[in-house]
């Protein structure tokens, strides 16, 4: 009895420490509380060795431009820092200045410049430097130059009655594949095998009709997403916590069927034990937590919905400039660079 | 970085060009230090990118020490995360052996 009560109390503190519980009307235990001094009997002070033993990374799926991986044993603050850096502080190259020599198309100059800036450019930003403040010209080491020169003509061989623009005109659709790289200075020597172009060839920039022409020169610079979203290297980077579903009482027969419908497919499976249908949690990871269970009076109290506090399922999709695994490595290095910067300042400035 | 406070134990650091990214993760690492009595950060105004980072220690430890230790610990965490991640990528690229960790 006393031992049982002690066990129950320990289970409750453990739950408070490492599960975020989703109740019917709100979420409990949201904040991290495992700091030294909060829980007597628990060793909470920072220990690098204990962290390294408990930490692991599992790569679940790696596709063309997307990566899904798990980080277990890390805290929300640091996982969020990685996510924020992936979105806003990993640098890329994008069109910044557009010199318009001739634009007789229907698209206004500034709209055209805005659209050109958003096009992802396949250029490894680690090969370039940031442009200095106030430097208008741009040197070889910080600028990439592209040219877009296109004119629409009427097709003399088109049929008399045709109304299909593809037949009637040449070059009436301006795609990103019409952007050509113009090497500056000694860039041909610096990057002999490089092929700088937009990531996708089929991004429609503008539409033209005969007699209209676009002749612009573009300068690409290195920047970060904090400055302008066009510099963000990820289509999106997000994480979610691993779901944890516990059945507090055995659920059978009709209730089991209803329970299976309440969750995403594949989460609850029904087993046949001694002729009765019993529900079992098969794969909680697939669930999207719509909390449908709470709408059914009979099932509400039989299930505990929670999330594991330190298990993060990251999903990173890249725009194609850098592969997603390189992006994650760069993000971690950027966080290290920030710490190093402050350590250097602490060491150099004397504290009174 | 600027610092001002009453004595060496309670110091508010002003970190320029920083936001929640470093603020929250550094706050977590400094809180894990048992010598720290209070640690918090706030963004003074959302238009300016600087944070006020305050550390109070119990006992006679100057507040710069937990900050330094927190920064070093955060570097250690990042290094370990980077190593683990790259090892995992490398093992995955070697082939699909089912390596149970």
TrEMBL record, chain A:
<dbReference type="GO" id="GO:0046983">
    <property type="term" value="F:protein dimerization activity"/>
</dbReference>
<dbReference type="Pfam" id="PF01000">
    <property type="entry name" value="RNA_pol_A_bac"/>
</dbReference>
<dbReference type="InterPro" id="IPR033901">
    <property type="entry name" value="RNAPI/III_AC40"/>
</dbReference>
<dbReference type="Pfam" id="PF01193">
    <property type="entry name" value="RNA_pol_L"/>
</dbReference>
<dbReference type="InterPro" id="IPR022842">
    <property type="entry name" value="RNAP_Rpo3/Rpb3/RPAC1"/>
</dbReference>
<dbReference type="InterPro" id="IPR011262">
    <property type="entry name" value="DNA-dir_RNA_pol_insert"/>
</dbReference>
<dbReference type="InterPro" id="IPR036643">
    <property type="entry name" value="RNApol_insert_sf"/>
</dbReference>
<dbReference type="InterPro" id="IPR050518">
    <property type="entry name" value="Rpo3/RPB3_RNA_Pol_subunit"/>
</dbReference>
<dbReference type="GO" id="GO:0005736">
    <property type="term" value="C:RNA polymerase I complex"/>
</dbReference>
<keyword id="KW-0539">Nucleus</keyword>
<comment type="similarity">
    <text>Belongs to the archaeal Rpo3/eukaryotic RPB3 RNA polymerase subunit family.</text>
</comment>
<keyword id="KW-0804">Transcription</keyword>
<protein>
    <recommendedName>
        <fullName>DNA-directed RNA polymerases I and III subunit RPAC1</fullName>
    </recommendedName>
</protein>
<dbReference type="InterPro" id="IPR011263">
    <property type="entry name" value="DNA-dir_RNA_pol_RpoA/D/Rpb3"/>
</dbReference>
<dbReference type="GO" id="GO:0003677">
    <property type="term" value="F:DNA binding"/>
</dbReference>
<dbReference type="InterPro" id="IPR036603">
    <property type="entry name" value="RBP11-like"/>
</dbReference>
<dbReference type="GO" id="GO:0003899">
    <property type="term" value="F:DNA-directed RNA polymerase activity"/>
</dbReference>
<dbReference type="GO" id="GO:0005666">
    <property type="term" value="C:RNA polymerase III complex"/>
</dbReference>
<keyword id="KW-0240">DNA-directed RNA polymerase</keyword>
<feature type="domain" description="DNA-directed RNA polymerase RpoA/D/Rpb3-type">
    <location>
        <begin position="66"/>
        <end position="345"/>
    </location>
</feature>
<dbReference type="GO" id="GO:0006351">
    <property type="term" value="P:DNA-templated transcription"/>
</dbReference>
<dbReference type="InterPro" id="IPR001514">
    <property type="entry name" value="DNA-dir_RNA_pol_30-40kDasu_CS"/>
</dbReference>
TrEMBL record, chain B:
<dbReference type="GO" id="GO:0006383">
    <property type="term" value="P:transcription by RNA polymerase III"/>
</dbReference>
<dbReference type="GO" id="GO:0005736">
    <property type="term" value="C:RNA polymerase I complex"/>
</dbReference>
<keyword id="KW-0240">DNA-directed RNA polymerase</keyword>
<keyword id="KW-0539">Nucleus</keyword>
<protein>
    <recommendedName>
        <fullName>DNA-directed RNA polymerases I and III subunit RPAC2</fullName>
    </recommendedName>
</protein>
<dbReference type="InterPro" id="IPR033898">
    <property type="entry name" value="RNAP_AC19"/>
</dbReference>
<dbReference type="GO" id="GO:0003899">
    <property type="term" value="F:DNA-directed RNA polymerase activity"/>
</dbReference>
<dbReference type="InterPro" id="IPR008193">
    <property type="entry name" value="RNA_pol_Rpb11_13-16kDa_CS"/>
</dbReference>
<dbReference type="Pfam" id="PF13656">
    <property type="entry name" value="RNA_pol_L_2"/>
</dbReference>
<dbReference type="GO" id="GO:0003677">
    <property type="term" value="F:DNA binding"/>
</dbReference>
<dbReference type="InterPro" id="IPR022905">
    <property type="entry name" value="Rpo11-like"/>
</dbReference>
<dbReference type="InterPro" id="IPR009025">
    <property type="entry name" value="RBP11-like_dimer"/>
</dbReference>
<keyword id="KW-0804">Transcription</keyword>
<dbReference type="GO" id="GO:0046983">
    <property type="term" value="F:protein dimerization activity"/>
</dbReference>
<dbReference type="GO" id="GO:0005666">
    <property type="term" value="C:RNA polymerase III complex"/>
</dbReference>
<comment type="similarity">
    <text>Belongs to the archaeal Rpo11/eukaryotic RPB11/RPC19 RNA polymerase subunit family.</text>
</comment>
<feature type="domain" description="DNA-directed RNA polymerase RBP11-like dimerisation">
    <location>
        <begin position="10"/>
        <end position="83"/>
    </location>
</feature>
<dbReference type="InterPro" id="IPR036603">
    <property type="entry name" value="RBP11-like"/>
</dbReference>
<dbReference type="GO" id="GO:0006362">
    <property type="term" value="P:transcription elongation by RNA polymerase I"/>
</dbReference>
């Amino acid at each position: 009895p006393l031992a049982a009560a002690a066990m129950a109390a320990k289970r409750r503190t453990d739950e408070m420490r490492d599960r975020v519980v989703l109740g019917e009307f709100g979420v409990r235990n949201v904040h991290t509380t495992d700091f030294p001094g909060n829980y007597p009997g628990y060793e909470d002070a920072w220990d690098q060795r204990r962290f390294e033993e408990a930490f692991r990374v599992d790569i679940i799926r790696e596709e063309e431009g997307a990566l899904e991986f798990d980080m277990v044993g890390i805290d929300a603050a640091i996982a969020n820092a990685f996510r924020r850096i992936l979105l806003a502080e990993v640098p890329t190259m994008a069109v910044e200045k557009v010199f318009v020599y001739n634009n007789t198309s229907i698209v206004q100059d500034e709209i055209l410049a805005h659209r050109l800036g958003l096009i992802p450019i396949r250029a490894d930003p680690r090969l370039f430097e940031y442009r200095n403040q106030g430097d208008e010209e741009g040197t070889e080491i910080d600028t990439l130059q592209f040219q877009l020169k296109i004119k629409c003509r009427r097709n003399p061989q088109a049929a008399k009655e045709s109304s299909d623009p593809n037949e009637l005109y040449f070059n009436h659709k301006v795609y990103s594949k019409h952007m050509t790289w113009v090497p500056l200075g000694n860039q041909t020597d610096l990057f002999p095998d490089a092929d700088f172009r937009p990531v996708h060839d089929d991004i429609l920039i503008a539409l033209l009709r005969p007699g209209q022409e676009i002749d612009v020169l573009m300068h690409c610079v290195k920047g970060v997403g904090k400055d302008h979203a066009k510099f963000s290297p990820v289509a999106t980077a997000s994480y979610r916590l691993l779901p944890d579903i516990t059945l507090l009482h055995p659920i059978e027969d009709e209730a089991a069927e209803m329970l299976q419908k309440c969750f995403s497919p594949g989460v609850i499976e029904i087993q046949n034990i001694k002729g009765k249908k019993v529900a079992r949690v098969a794969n909680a990871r697939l669930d999207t937590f719509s909390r449908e269970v709470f709408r059914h009076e009979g099932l509400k109290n039989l299930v505990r919905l929670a999330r594991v506090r330190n298990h993060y399922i990251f999903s990173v999709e890249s725009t194609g400039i850098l592969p997603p695994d390189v992006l994650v490595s760069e993000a971690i290095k950027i966080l290290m660079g920030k710490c190093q910067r402050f350590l250097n300042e602490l060491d150099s400035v004397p504290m009174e | 970085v600027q610092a001002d406070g009453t004595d060496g134990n309670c110091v508010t650091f002003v970190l320029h060009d920083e936001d929640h990214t470093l603020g929250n993760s550094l706050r977590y690492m400094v809180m894990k230090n048992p010598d720290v009595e209070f640690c918090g950060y706030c963004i003074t105004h959302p238009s300016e990118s600087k944070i006020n980072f305050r550390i109070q220690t119990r006992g006679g430890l100057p507040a710069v020490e937990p900050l330094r230790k927190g920064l070093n610990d955060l570097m250690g965490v990042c290094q370990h995360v980077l190593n683990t991640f790259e090892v995992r990528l490398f093992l995955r690229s070697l082939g699909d052996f089912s390596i149970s960790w």
